[in-house]
Design goal:
Blueprint: H1 6-18, E1 29-35, H2 42-53, E2 57-65, H3 67-76, E3 81-85, H4 91-104, E4 111-115, H5 122-131, E5 135-137, H6 139-158, H7 171-174, H8 178-190, H9 195-206, E6 213-218, H10 224-238, E7 244-250, E8 259-261, E9 275-281, H11 293-302, E10 307-314, E11 328-333, H12 348-351, E12 354-357, H13 365-380, E13 392-394, H14 403-418, H15 450-487, H16 495-505, H17 508-523, E14 528-533, E15 536-541, E16 543-545, E17 551-553, H18 563-572, E18 598-600, H19 605-616, E19 622-627, H20 630-633, H21 642-645, H22 658-664, E20 675-680, H23 685-708, H24 714-727, E21 730-732, H25 736-741, H26 750-766, E22 772-773, E23 775-778, H27 780-784, H28 789-809, H29 814-817, E24 821-827, H30 836-851, H31 856-859, E25 863-867, H32 880-893, E26 898-900, H33 913-928, H34 943-965, H35 968-974, H36 977-995, H37 1024-1040, H38 1042-1057, H39 1062-1069, H40 1075-1086
Parallel strand pairs: 1-2, 1-3, 2-8, 3-4, 4-5, 6-10, 6-11, 7-9, 7-10, 11-12, 12-13, 18-19, 19-20, 20-21, 21-22, 23-24, 24-25, 25-26
Antiparallel strand pairs: 14-15, 16-17
């Protein structure tokens, strides 16, 4: 039996799985994160889970973390190790900068571990190891060691006791030194701080008896961390930046001794020199407050902080232990506390100086405030006061600049003063209301069942199909029975009543479809088919001739004679271009325009522009798909700082200003009907889109000047702008929902980001932008994060329907915005991918027609595909093209509207010119050489395709129901449902891949018996010249527009805070402000994204 390499892989797997788990001798603490401007956080999330299971206390920071943030956290948390994922380029500069900063801080002992899924190649790994990085794991390491093996190695290497090296004196701690304070807290936790030092701390702390200690406690999931962050934000903004220490407690899991210290990830305001944040695990304590907390508070007071905040884990009804350790206590709860009698059991309502009812957008929130106020009044026996005077506040910590949180902040200041503590001051006017007004929610509460209503609609349509098909079959059978009886002379008049009953029970549309079918067959039987598209007559050839002289139908028609089966086909499938569009939304593919997309993005805009011209030189249609570098993806400007500098122009093109955008698309007529542009951008999508629209308008103004030898008048400029907006074709990704669920390039608060998306759509409606999609609702990144095809499809469609509900709630009409929505999916190797487009089109069309009453244009789901990045493997990379070819083939068979084929080397680098040619050749071979591609509905009528379509559709509808149970898409996101499911599916895939149960050729089976040694493939990296050039161009743009930029930023912030259309102002702002300037301005006006687990 030939050795295909599988036996060796399985043998190694069994060794890894059988390896005895390492049990740390000391409490090991790790900081885990994804690098700056990197949203690929699913892998590091999986790693932190396994670390926890191995007995580690994990401080998880999530995605998009700068080197300074990670280093600061590691020092404040006194961690032994840092574990990072870095997929987005710039990794060499990032890791080296981390080594440098740790060395500067005197903490070179902290171990640094990293990985990048093949993006970090062998020579770079060696370079980083030589520089001081402890270990960068390669795909080969993962193969040999397994996930568990890598984690065990990290734990074992980091298992040291930091308290063996205590500060020689407390003098630096007493001056606020974070490093010494962190080490002293570690010693307190382990009971290793000498008695003399503990006495000195207590004596010093006693001198700071005016320093208030605020204890924040409450029920699990009440939003304590978010509320704490919002309170800190107000102390920093309105109390003149006091020095604050935050101690956040989380429970240790008794089974493993590991802990998820998950409060730091929620904090947006602690990245400042006057803030100290320490996560504390309970370590064997059977209550939420460990016995050493008092001494930790003492240490923080001794360090001279102006205020100490202690946040406990979620508590039960009876736990008020925090009260004895703090000066002021705040209890946080949600409106869903159950029956009113439950309030009588909550211990903290007796002791809390203030109560915050968070998440006031929940149903029954105002009733909850009233009930809690009455309970507090009873507990305090304050019957001479109105319940409204009780210190009970209604808040929405998730809402930027929430007045309820501001009122709570001012109440805490009052309590500090009343109890004789430091006056921290307040520069903001008193807030009169103690309760937040929910205002316009994204999806109204009475529409919470929208997904289940869609499921019911689709299932109802199928029930109708079955009933109508049965009637049609019986009607035909009766008619034929009557004919045959008449032929032998029998009286068949008794059948007339039965026929009439079935005829009257049939839907008029069903009867019409059967009636016109012979004419449809006739129209498809000739040589040409003529259709009208937007009042234009287009002629399509219906027959393609093979080399053998046979004529292949462009669209093949079923040969059904049974009218029941025919009707079922017409109602469930129909021909391409006809409802429910299962086989495609257009009757025929465009002549001379293959669905091929030209994908580019590298270095500066000059290089990417050249790449676009190279890729499109042999194509009449210019379908330009743009990848942006991660600096741009996160809305920042290029900069010399190493962890930013390294990413400029890597894994995408650097775009920082309108000047850059004009260079990027120079030489392409953006208003040509054969040109369309797709921009893969999410967080800063409104800004990038405004730059693109301005580029298109300026291009037409330049054309006018060349054609007319003069500049246009103001009136002519407005006409040019209006025509350009109506004409330009393309899409911007912009889908914030999938980013929160999947890969995370969210930068603004979710509420504000969704508001800006709606602003774009409203602007499009007002300016008749009909050919440009306001959002590409993406499943690709959900799949890349690890979701299986069912989850990808269900989550993506659910997100699409959420946009529908949100825009309807804003007052837009369905047919004004639905045609501006498009969908973007990933095609992988699983069988479900063969029917993904069919299922998506049928569900969307059915819901749009029967649930929302939308017109035909709105019913057509635009289905765009990219082959799977997850099936691009760093091992045997040449095999990736085989996988890509198969994925491209099923996309073409499924009548996708556009297709991007990944280059085989994208597993490790920005694709080279050679690999891109191969990727495009895959599509060209399918479209121009592959014989069956001459037919445009090859999957219709296949038994397995029919079976899979129904199976996948029902699985999606069931997922809709599960999301409904969690409050719809936004409610499910709040509890992390989608992210958790994606990560579970990712772990399942990786486990099967590692064990060999899921064979992957060249990776875990049929491995190369003679692998090439030390072969480094060609890497496409941005050059120093390009990076420096981008920074120079940015500074030039900013200096030219200094006078206008400040005023424009004020105008932009005013629009954001006064509920005006932000995109309308962005159309002007991008002419004088850079991307980073706009992002910073909107952070101040709309809030930053809050990371989650």
């Amino acid at each position: 039996m030939p050795d295909d390499g599988k036996q060796g892989a399985d043998s190694q797997t069994s060794k890894t799985l059988a390896a005895k788990a390492y049990t740390p001798k000391n409490p090991v603490r790790f900081v885990t994160a994804a690098s700056l401007f990197d949203g690929h956080d699913a892998s590091i999330n999986i790693m932190r889970r396994i670390l926890q299971g191995g007995g580690v206390e994990v401080i998880h920071m999530g995605h998009n973390r700068s080197v300074a943030e990670v280093v600061s956290a590691a020092i404040q948390e006194d961690a032994q190790g840092i574990a990072l994922s870095s997929y987005q380029g710039g990794h060499v500069e990032y890791f080296k900068y981390m080594v440098d900063l740790l060395k500067e801080a005197g903490r070179s002992d902290i171990k640094i571990f990293g990985g990048g899924g093949g993006v970090i190649v062998g020579p770079e790994i060696k370079e980083l190891h030589d520089y001081g990085v402890t270990r960068i794991f390669s795909p080969e390491d993962g193969q040999q060691m397994g996930l568990q093996g890598m984690i065990q190695h990290m734990i074992e290497v980091s298992d040291v006791d930091p308290t063996d090296d205590l500060p020689k004196s407390l003098s630096k701690l007493e001056k606020g030194d974070h490093k010494d304070l962190a080490r002293v807290i570690s010693a307190i936790e382990r009971g290793k701080l000498p008695d003399a030092d503990l006495k000195q701390l207590r004596d010093t702390a006693a001198k700071h008896d005016k320093t208030p200690v605020l204890g924040i406690t409450g029920t699990g999931g009440a939003g304590k961390s978010s509320l704490t962050d919002e309170l800190i934000r107000r102390f920093r903004l309105f109390s003149e930046e006091p020095n604050i220490a935050v101690i956040a407690i989380d429970p240790t899991r008794r089974k493993t001794n590991g802990a998820l210290l998950g409060d730091r990830i929620r904090m947006n305001t602690i990245d400042a020199p006057n803030l100290y944040f320490r996560s504390v695990a309970t370590r064997g304590s059977k209550i939420e407050v460990p016995e050493y907390l008092g001494d930790i508070i003492t240490a923080a007071k001794a360090a001279g902080f102006d205020m100490v905040i202690v946040e406990t884990p979620g508590i039960g009804q009876g736990d008020g232990a925090i009260v004895d350790l703090v000066d002021v206590s705040l209890y946080v709860m949600t409106p869903e506390f159950g029956a009113q009698s439950q309030l009588e059991k909550i211990d903290m309502l007796d002791y809390a100086d203030a109560v915050a009812i968070n998440k006031m957008d929940r149903k029954g929130a105002l009733d909850a405030v009233r009930d809690v106020r009455k309970q507090v009044q009873r507990n305090r026996e304050a019957f001479s006061q109105s319940p409204d005077e009780m210190p009970v506040f209604g808040c929405m910590a998730s809402k930027f600049a929430d007045p309820g949180v501001t009122a709570l902040y001012q109440e805490l200041l009052s309590v500090f003063s009343e109890k004789g503590f430091n006056d921290l001051g307040c520069t903001v006017a008193p807030v009169t209301s103690r309760v937040s007004e929910p205002g316009q929610t994204i999806v109204p509460p009475d529409r919470a069942r929208y997904l289940s209503e869609i499921s019911e609609t689709v299932r109802g349509y199928h029930a109708t199909i079955e009933a109508q098909s049965k009637l049609a079959r019986e009607r035909q059978q009766l008619r034929e029975s009557k004919r045959m009886l008449s032929e032998i002379g029998d009286d068949a008049s008794g059948l007339d009543a039965l026929m009439a009953a079935r005829d009257s029970a049939m839907d008029s549309r069903a009867k019409k479809l059967i009636e016109i079918w012979p004419r449809v067959v006739e129209s498809y039987s000739g040589d040409d088919y003529v259709v009208k598209i937007r009042n234009k007559e287009v002629r399509y050839n219906l027959q393609r001739e093979t080399l053998s002289g046979n004529r292949v139908s462009r669209v093949a028609l079923p040969k059904f004679e049974d009218e029941g089966e025919l009707l079922k086909f017409l109602l469930k499938e129909n021909l391409p271009g006809s409802f429910p569009y299962t086989a495609g939304v257009f009757a025929f593919k465009r002549e001379g325009e293959d669905p091929t997309r030209m994908f580019a993005g590298e270095g500066d805009p000059f290089r990417t522009n050249e790449r676009f011209k190279f890729l499109s030189r042999d194509s009449q249609a210019k379908r330009l798909s743009t990848a942006f570098d991660s600096v741009t993806l996160y809305g920042f400007d290029p900069d010399e700082r190493p962890d930013i500098y390294g990413k400029v122009g890597n894994s995408g093109v650097s775009i920082a200003s309108l000047d850059d955008m004009k260079v990027l698309y120079d030489g392409f007529n953006l208003c040509s009907p054969s040109t369309s542009v797709s921009m893969t951008i999410n967080g800063p999508a409104p800004t990038i889109l405004a730059m693109f629209m301005n580029t298109a308008v300026d291009q037409q103004i330049t054309k006018f000047e060349a054609d007319n030898d003069r500049a246009p008048t103001d009136e002519e400029i407005e006409k040019i702008k209006a025509w350009t907006l109506e004409t330009v074709r393309g899409t911007v990704q912009a889908d914030i929902l999938k980013e929160d669920q999947g890969q995370n390039t969210c930068i603004f608060s979710t509420e504000f980001a969704l508001k800006m998306m709606a602003d774009i759509q409203e602007y499009f409606v007002e300016h008749r932008v009909r050919n440009f999609y306001s959002v590409s609702i993406s499943g690709y990144h959900i799949a890349e994060a690890g979701a299986n095809p069912i989850s990808q499809l269900a989550f993506t469609l659910a997100n699409g329907f959420t946009f529908v509900e949100a825009y309807l709630a804003r007052g837009m009409k369905i047919d004004d915005f639905a045609p501006n929505l498009s969908f973007f999916f990933s095609n992988g190797m699983d069988p479900e991918y063969s029917v993904m487009g069919r299922v998506a089109r049928r569900i969307w069309a059915s819901a749009m027609r029967f649930k929302y009453g939308a017109n035909e244009r709105s019913q057509k789901l635009k289905y765009h595909i990219q082959t799977s990045g997850r099936s691009l493997h760093a091992q045997e990379m040449n095999f990736n093209d085989i996988r890509t070819t198969l994925q491209a083939l099923i996309a073409v068979y499924d009548n996708c509207n556009s297709l991007h084929t990944n280059a085989y080397d994208e597993a490790i680098t920005t694709p080279t010119e050679d690999s891109l040619r191969r990727a495009i050749a895959i599509q060209m071979i399918i479209n121009k050489e592959w014989g069956l591609a001459k037919n445009e509905n090859p999957t219709q009528g296949a038994f397995i395709i029919d079976e899979m379509t129904d199976l996948v559709e029902e699985a999606v509808l069931q997922e809709f129901d599960r999301i409904t149970e969690r409050g719809g898409v936004l409610g499910a996101m709040e509890t992390g449902y989608q992210r958790g499911k994606i990560q579970e599916e990712s772990i399942h895939y990786e486990t099967l891949k590692h064990t060999g149960e899921l064979p992957i050729i060249g990776v875990n089976t049929y491995r190369n018996p003679n692998p090439p040694e030390d072969v480094t493939p060609e890497l496409r990296r941005s050059t120093d010249e390009e990076k420096k050039g981008q920074i120079t161009r940015l500074r030039d743009f900013q200096s030219r527009n200094t006078a206008s930029a400040d005023e424009m930023i004020k105008r932009l912030q005013h629009a954001a805070t006064n509920d005006e259309n932000v995109f309308a102002v962005l159309m002007d702002a991008v002419r004088v402000c850079s991307l980073g300037q706009i992002t910073d301005a909107l952070f101040e006006a709309g809030g930053k994204y809050r990371r989650n687990m």
